[in-house]
Design brief:
Layout (H helix, E strand, L loop, with lengths): L1 E7 L6 H4 L15 H11 L4 E4 L2 H5 L2 H8 L3 E4 L12 H15 L6 E2 L12 H8 L4 E2 L20 E3 L13 E3 L4 E4 L2 E4 L3 H6 L2 H13 L5 E5 H4 L11 H8 L5 H11 L2 E2 L1 H7 L3
Parallel strand pairs: 1-2, 1-10, 1-11, 2-3, 4-5, 5-7
Antiparallel strand pairs: 6-7, 8-9
Helix pairs in contact: 5-6
This protein binds zinc ion (ZN).
Organism: Candidatus Nitrosotenuis cloacae
Protein name: Xylanase
InterPro entries: DUF3473 (IPR022560), Glyco_hydro/deAcase_b/a-brl (IPR011330), NODB_dom (IPR002509), PuuE_HpPgdA-like (IPR045235)
């Protein structure tokens, strides 16, 4: 059994886009694709965890019921998609957790850091999450990329603490679900979704899931709402590199996800935790 998390955010949230926003009005549009994503999951008979950027719930509170009523889980992705290691975010994060709890009737037990920004500068977040009733996190990429990641992290779920981000700490109270990685030409690469499912051959992704299955490790997968509904994603003018990372092959993401969900079993974090008694 594998795990599917959907980072539910709008067009102005991705870090690469934020630097091109200047005066642009931030009116959510990707949010209108929720019904399409829910229909897709229903047809595939798959439950997922939606890591929602909290301000979207303020804008449209009914998205909570829509997600929950279909058996999916709601998780926290900060209120405004702020990096955890941004200066002075610590105090604001505590306020944001409380705000999100109020917006979600205290249902959220899982967290994903925007742009996988959980690192040794922001590891204070772990204790804060535990103190606020959170039971798991999924923000560690077990390979170093230009934007995030760790070289020596565990690949199977483990107990994480602020002193031990990469390895199991028996004293830990938060379960970490590291993202799926695989091999390409002998090198370790993320194969867990997002840009990688659009860029890499799907065979590389499938192979990595099969490798994890052999080791009896769940593949933790992530996909952005705007990748599943690119018709609601406006085209922002950016540098060639940023445009490539953001928009490359968006039109094929849904069909690639469809193929993976056909071949492999996925569920939400909460259902996985319950099933395997973690
Ligand atoms: Zn995000």
């Amino acid at each position: 059994m594998n795990i599917l998390g959907i980072d539910f955010e709008d067009w102005f949230h991705p870090q690469l886009i934020q630097r091109y926003l200047d005066g642009k009005k931030r009116t959510p549009t990707v949010i209108n694709g929720l019904d399409k994503i829910l229909d897709f999951l229903r047809i595939k008979n798959v439950y997922a965890t939606f890591f929602v950027v909290g301000e979207l719930l303020e804008y449209k509170p009914e998205i909570l019921d829509k997600i929950i009523n279909q058996g999916h889980e709601i998780g926290f992705h900060t209120m405004h998609h702020t990096r955890l290691d941004e200066p002075n975010f610590k105090e604001k994060f505590q306020e944001e957790i409380i705000k999100f709890a109020n917006l979600t009737e205290k249902r959220s037990r899982g967290f994903r850091a925007p742009t996988f920004s959980l690192n040794y500068q922001s590891s204070w977040a772990i204790e804060m999450l535990v103190n606020n009733g959170y039971s798991y996190d999924s923000s560690i990429m077990p390979v170093k990329t230009s934007m995030y990641g760790f070289t020596n992290s565990e690949i199977k779920p483990y107990k994480i603490t602020s002193k031990s981000l990469e390895k199991n700490d028996p004293e830990g109270e938060l379960i970490e679900f590291p993202l799926l990685v695989g091999k390409l030409l002998g090198r370790t690469v993320p194969t867990s979704g997002g840009f990688y499912i659009r860029f890499l051959p799907l065979s590389v992704i499938k192979k990595s899931i099969i490798e994890y299955e052999k080791m009896r490790i769940p593949s933790t997968f992530y996909i952005h709402s705007w990748e599943l509904t690119p018709e609601f994603m406006p085209k922002i003018s950016m540098s060639i590199k940023d445009r490539f990372i953001t928009y490359h092959n968006l039109k094929n993401t849904l069909s690639r996800m469809d193929e993976l969900l056909k071949k492999f079993e996925f569920t939400s974090f909460s259902r996985y935790i319950q099933k395997y008694n973690l």
